[in-house]
Specification:
The chain is an all-alpha fold. The chain is built from ten helices and no strands. About 70% of the residues lie in helices and about 0% in strands.
Length: about 210
């Protein structure tokens, strides 16, 4: 029990340190200090800094997957269901900034750590399966176009949210506005929702 608590404390601290500093600048010493353990305990439980980061990424994905699995949708209302998924993804990114910063760090390293994960294939997003159900329901009701890929739609939703939030500092400077200012986040949520619905809606002649 105590060993489990120590391991969890190290993992929680590692998420904070790597999210703040990235893998390269995230120091073992900082993680041990924050978790109130010792450097040797980190190596005992995780083997190496690299393997610790792998588990940080796995944990980060797992937490999002668990949250996605709780999304409640009404397939009798495909438009409302799709809106629910878009809003969930957007709000999750806002509420969990560590998700974006950790993925930014790993992408800078060309995904070398997540490729080492033995669980990576178990971490596929439940949201893709949910979107597939929503799309099928929309097609059956004549609301959505046929042959829209749930995977492609998920990438679209994730991209529009992820890019905005991960680049808001530079975009705000370039566009001379505060993209996290009053009303801006709600505005972009509504923009993503509208763009997503327009991309799947069936129009006359389709």
């Amino acid at each position: 029990m105590r060993a489990h608590k120590t391991r969890d404390a190290i993992l929680r601290a590692a998420i904070r340190v790597f999210a703040r500093n990235g893998f390269t600048d995230g120091k073992i010493e900082s993680i041990s200090k924050l978790s109130r353990t010792h450097d040797r305990m980190i190596y005992y439980y995780f083997g190496s800094k690299a393997q610790l980061f792998v588990e940080v990424l796995e944990t980060t994905y797992r937490k999002m997957n668990e949250a996605e699995a709780t999304i409640h949708i009404d397939l009798e209302d495909p438009v409302g269901a799709l809106r629910t998924v878009v809003h969930f993804v957007w709000q999750y990114y806002i509420d969990h900034p560590e998700f974006i910063t950790l993925l930014n760090s790993e992408n800078l390293l060309k995904g070398k750590h997540i490729k080492k994960s033995s669980r990576v294939h178990e971490l596929s997003s439940p949201a893709v399966a949910i979107l597939d159900e929503v799309l099928k329901a929309g097609v059956q009701r004549g609301l959505f176009r046929d042959h829209v890929s749930a995977r492609d739609l998920y990438i679209q939703i994730a991209s529009l949210g992820y890019f905005y939030l991960s680049n808001h500092y530079t975009l705000s400077a370039f566009l001379n506005c505060n993209l996290r200012g009053q009303g801006e986040l709600d505005h972009w949520r509504d923009y993503i929702t509208d763009a997503t619905l327009r991309s799947v809606r069936r129009f006359e002649g389709d």
